[in-house]
Structures are given as structure tokens and as C-alpha cells.
## 1
Amino acid sequence: MLLRFSKSLVLAVSALTALASSVPAHAEKMPSPKSVLRQEPFILEVTVLSVEEKPGPHAGSSVWHRVRIDRVERGDGLKVGDESAVVSRVYDNPPGTAGTNGHRGDWRGPNGLPAKGDRARLFASGSATTLQPHFTNGWQPVAPRVAFVAADDEYRSEITMPFLAELVAKPLGIAASTHLASDDGTTPKVEAKTQLTDARALGAADAIVAFMRFEQLGDSARREFLEPLDHGVPLVAFRTSTHAFAYPAESPEHALNDGFGAKFIGSPWRFHHGHSSRTRVLAPTAEAAKHPILAGVAIPPEGIVVPSWLYHVEPLPADCTVLLWGEAIDSERKDAPQKQPILWVRNLAHGSAPQRIAYTSLGHPGDFANAEFRVIAAQMVAFVAGRSEAIDDADRAAIRAAAFSPPSTR
């Protein structure tokens, strides 16, 4: 009996081997993450004017789109209103071929591509007259995806980050997602430290907004959060994100405790001026006031007082551009400098697309009750997402008027 079973097993394996060798091999071409798409020389928003399938320039036929340029995020030689050709590969495998037809998205046109009248965000190479979308997924939905990570158990980011997402979603035209602290990756739990809800979606984000504190993310969640940032996805960070991680000394990830803040933000956690203190937000210099994050922001000469106690962050790397300084009120650290940077931006080199980062050491829930801080926070998101021009005076007025009742800290 055993002998017959062994012979049957050998015959089955032989048959499978023969079948596999008869199927033409084809390498799988998976969709690229946003960090890769962002390296393309052209990032555009377009409207499709016409679609035609015809030969070249690739082997076989291609889908040719005539598009109107609606917005130029990056792209030499193009401006709003120009028209250009976009040439996409037709990628159909013969029956029985292993592999993929290539991810295109939920488009209505040929080969899973946009149809006439569709609006799309395009990541492409080529020239201003003949663009070639990143294969396979250079055609993207027109609304950039911004992921808001709220994993802080002190400052109520599970309330303030969704509130901020609501403030910016419409004026910026973004698709916002919120990722909360969790034990299982599905159920939000404020005090959880090891997972984030729907962490896998972070890889599709065009920008990440983080408010984190003393996390000990497991391997999968940590990778989903860090890989986009390591590859150049823009970042907005609030307050305790300088100490986003708190791994024990024996953990192989212990270096992240100081390393995350130092690498991305420019400062690790150092110290603050005490829970009984507050911060006076000082008026910006004339040069700093020109920055898009401070456009339309009204800070009087005497400053604005907010509940956050001042963080000590100096020294900062030379590539940090400080936009606002804060002054401690009723400091418990009289031995320390009483003024510190509280808002800055920096660019980190990542191929053809520098990584934009904006950080503020403010973020107490009471800070979000301040109308000017809300405008600053919204414009931080707009800046890193490359959409500063989308917020106008009417949007700023709506952001100021938004109702918000600040919860107490934990």
C-alpha cells in the first residue's frame, strides 16, 4: 500500500513539473508604491480629451490619450491648459501565460485605463509632448491620499487628527484615511502600542500626518509605517512624534527611540518646560511670514498664548528652516533657554523628489481650539502634499470658524 502511494506521488509531482514547464514564464509586475511614483519627472493632474488604440512606440499596440493639463506638481515644459499625448502600454498575456495584465485602477477605458472625460493624476516620464505613465500604475485617482496616524495616549490625537482631516479634505481635494492605535490592527484602542488600524494602506499614501507617542509597533505595522517615509513620502509631525517610539533597551528596534525624531524631524526627545507652563507663540519674521504654511496667519506682535508647554529641541540640523519660535510662560526649567523653535520645515534628499517634512512641537488639544493654530496645522498638510495654493482666504475663514471643543489630556 505504501509503495503504491509513493509511486502515485512521484507520478503526480512529475505531471505538475511537466505542466509548469509548458507554461511560458512571465515576471510579475506589481503596482509601485507612491514613494516610487514620486520619482517620475512629471506629476500632473489631467483631463482626458480623447482615447485611441494604435501602434507604437512600444512593441504591438498602445493606448494613446490626448490630455489637457489641469495642474502641474512637477514637469518641465508644461503649464496649466497645455495639451499632451500620453502613451500607455497594452499588456495582455496570451492564454495560459503566468503573470499579470498589470494594475491600472478602476478606470472605465481600454485596458483598464482612463476613458474620455476622466480626470486623473499622472506619474510619468518622457517629454512634455509625449508622456509615458509609470508602468503599471502611473495613472492614479486625482485625489491624493493623505494618511493621518493618531497613536498618542496623552494629547487626544484620536480626536484632533480626524478633526484636522475633516478641515483639510475638501479644500485640498484629498482622500483622507485615519489610522489609530490598536492591539489587533482592526479595533481602535487608545492605550494600545503594538498595531495601527489598516496599516497596510499607508503604502498608498501620498503624504503621512503623524501624532505618535511611545509606540512599540510590531514588525508588520512598523514596516508599513516606516517604509514610505524611508523612501521619501512627505511627513507632517506633531508634538510627541519626536518620541514616537519607546522600545525596551534589549529590543533590536531600540535605536528608533531617539533615531526616528533625529532622522526625520531633526530633533529627538530632550525635555520640556513643565506641565504647569504654557507657550507664547511669537510673531514670525517678515521672511518666515512669506512661507506657505504661514500664509494668511494672523499672529499679533504680542504673540498668541497656547496650552502646550514648550519643548526644548535645539540644536537643529542646518537643513531645518524655522518658521515660528515659542517662549515659555511660567517655566519650571528656569535653567534652560526660554525660547525654542516650535515650527520648522526641512527637505531630505530622495532622488528627483526631495522629501518635504513639516513639524510643530505644539499639539495640545487646547491648541486646536486656537483658530490661528488650526490654520497653521491645515497649511502644514497642504504644504507637504504640494497643494498650498488650494487653501484661500475663504478656506482659512472656514477653518477658523470650525467648532471644536477641546478634550482634556490624559
## 2
Amino acid sequence: MVASLLILAAAMAVLFHVLRDIDFARTLDAIASTAAVAIVGSAAFVALGYVTLTFYDYFSLQTIGRRDVPYRVAAMASFVSYSIGHNLGATVFTAGAVRWRIYSRWNLTVVDIAKIAFVTGLTFWLGNVVVLGTAMIVEPEAASAVDQLPPIVNQCLGVVALAVVGCYLLWLLPRPRVIGRGSWKVILPNARLTLVQIGIGVLDLTAGSLAFFMLLPSEPSVDFITVMVVFVTAMLLGFVSHTPGGLGVFDAAILVALPQFPKEELLASLLIFRLLYFVLPLLMAVSILALREAWHARSS
């Protein structure tokens, strides 16, 4: 909690410093002049990212032995829980509450929901570690723009991150590994399935990065790997801050890490991205959940 508050306080200070002399009229002009093809392309990648998120829950259900729950239910639970959880913050609790509301009709218990949260969290972190570790080795300067560490240090961190994942895979090879006891026991995916798990996480992060990349100004030119490092790092900072949608924290990290863009144009890209990635999915998720509740209330 203390770390989250410190991150939030630092982000607010950075935002105040960066935005204190911004021309909001230019920002509105930049939003209006954003190419329709860029917005449509970004929306398509956002949609791909949310489709990928559905596999988080479906993979988790397979892992905990609840193969009787169909993909359509897992997809709805995943989309609704993540869309609401992302926007409310403290995703573990908010998304967990929504999941329980949906999965309880399939006789999943609170313990089952906790197991799903554990496996989805593992998928999220494995994907993040692999993406960031690889990108920090390839583009350490991009990571330095966010964490202010020397590039060589970021490269070393990237090597360590990938080594940890490699050791984890080797640990899974000899036999099935179990976490927890009794009803809390979870049999971890084997090494082959863990590679699938990593692939899900990587695809999710890649789709989100591409969605943001599509909205950036065409000039100056910045390569995708650099944007991906900045995006994933900013998302992680927003996640650990527990602020709704990483509000303030994500934005401050982006504005600091991509100073080559005019602030007004970069802020315009951020605002459009927030609309596509956070606001519209939230409205859809709340509508789906409300319709579901109304349907079940009428049927009971």
C-alpha cells in the first residue's frame, strides 16, 4: 500500500510538471486530426487484446480441473471482470468479485475463484517478464527512459528476468508441481503448457502495445520495440499503483518516456487510447453484466 501511494504521488508530481504549460486547444485539435484509419486499427488491436484475455480464464479453468465450464462462459467472465477490474483498480479483488458472480452459477466456490486469480496472475506475470526481459535486452535505452537506470543495468535485469523464467520451466520438467494444500491445492501447468501460458500473456501485451502504437503521431518516427517497452512498463506501474485504470501513473510514465513527441499530440494519443482501451470496454462490460442479471432475475 505504501509503495502504491508513493508511485501515485510521484506520478502526480510528474504530471503537474509536464502538463502545467500544455496547450489544451492544441490537444483537442490533435484529437480531431487523428486519422480514422489509426483509430480503427487501434480499436482492432484492443479487440484482439480482449479476445486474448478470454484465454486467461479458459486456461485457468482447464488448469484447476473445471473443464465443464464452456469457453463462452469463461469468455464473458473474463471480459466483464477485466474490463470492470481495470477501471476500478485493485483488480485482484474487483475482478474476483465479478468472476464469482458469474461462475457461482456453475457451482464454482470462492476457493475456485482464488485459484483462477492465481493462475491468471501467473499468466500475466510470465508474459510481462518475458516481454520486458527480451525488450530490455534489445532496447535498454527505452527502459531507461522510464526507470532512469543505466542501459547496461537494464540489459542485466533483462537477462536475469529471462533466466528466472528459464529456471521455472526447468523446475517444471521432472514431474507435476503442486502449490498449496487441501482444497487450495493447484497443480501447475507443465513446461509445455507453461509455454502456451507465456504465449497468451505475450499476445495480450503485444496487442495492447500495437493499439497504442497505432495512435502515436507519425513524426518523429519511433520503432515498435521502444514503444512496447515503454507501454508495458507504464502498464505495470499503473497496475501496482492500484489506481483505476492506472490513471495518472500510466500517463505520467508515457509522457516522460516519450519526450520526442510534442506533449499535446502525445496527450491526444493517450486520451484516445483510454477511450478505446478502458472506457468503451467498461461500458460494454457493465451493459453485459446488467443484461445478464436482468435475464437471470426474470428466469428465476
## 3
Amino acid sequence: MSLCADCFAVTTCSSVTLKSVTWRRVLPIALVFAVVQTMFMLLGWLFGDLFVGYIHKVAGILGFLLLLFVGGSMILEAIKGGDEVRDLNGLRNIFIGAVATSIDALAVGVSMSMASPTASEMAADHAALFVVTFLSVVAGMFGGYRVGHRYGRPAEIIGGIVLIAIGARLLFGC
């Protein structure tokens, strides 16, 4: 569940800008986040020995830059007052959000590889991660939409600030 907290936070904050939220819109986004999160953990597990030295060096910087882009875009759109909403609209923004929130899953996969779990243990861990990520994104999107629908632009600005703060936490390890 702790790996999915960032997914929940990012989709909640990003969803405050959406004009509508339907199951048809939410399910593919939740699927992308769940697949990316699960694949990053799998890659970390498969290539753990190769990644150990590099993950900690770039993870915080990469996560910060990605969330700065998404959060900054939200804030700028809210200030401009434009109708064009960038966050969680379009595969590129969805993928950026999914990657930004999945870097820690890569690190967890690396650490799990060092514990030498069995294939069945890893399969269970990956299945659990997939399901919890999927559900956290669904909950985040519906919750964020409700907050944004009720509070409008201030919610967009606060959402952008929260995303940048999450990125800063990744960068500075706070």
C-alpha cells in the first residue's frame, strides 16, 4: 500500500482539473498506472544487481522533474484560466504520472531481488501491487474530481503544489 500512496496522491491532485470522470475514462488510466508500477517492480527484481548503484542516484531527480512538470502545468493552467486541461488527458501525461510514481517500485524490486524470494512469492507480491495500485488510482480519480468540481481553481493550484511537494520529497528524501 505504501508504494501506491504516490499514485493515489498524483491521481487525486491531477483529477481536480477534469471536467468529468466516468468509468470508461478511469479504468484505462488505472490500468496504465498499475501496469507501469508492476513492471517497474518486476524490472527491479529481474535486474537488481545491475541497478543497485544507479537507482538511488537518479530516482529522486527523475521523480522530482516529472512531478514538477505535471504540477507546474496544473498551476499554470489554473492561473491562466484556460479550458484546456493537460493533466491525465492524453497518454503522455498519464505515462509521465505513472513513471514518476513508480520509481520507488523499481527500488523495491531491487531490494526484493537481494532477498532471493521464490517465483511464487514474487508473483503474489506483483499481483498485490497491481490490484492495490489499480484501486488507489480509481479512488484517487473519483475523489479528486469531486474536490475539483466543488472547489475549482483553488483545488487545481493546491493539487499542483502537492505534486511539486511530492517531487521535492523524492529529491530531498524528506
